[in-house]
User: What shape does this take?
Amino acid sequence: MGFYPADYVTVQAATSTTFTAPPQDGSLIFPDWIDWHIERSHDHPYAVLVGENEGEENVSIT
Assistant: This one.
C-alpha cells in the first residue's frame, strides 16, 4: 500500500531555480547522476538527512 493515491502525480523541483533534472531515459548510471548534479545543480542540496528525534538538526548534502 502506497502513501499517496494511485493518481497522485508531482513534478519534483519544477519551480526550482537551483535544480536541473538529469535525463530519465536510463542513459545515466548512478555515478553519472552525481556528476550531473555537481555540474548542473551545485547550489541545490543532493540529499537532506532528517534527524530522527526532536531537537536533532537536519543535514544537507550538496
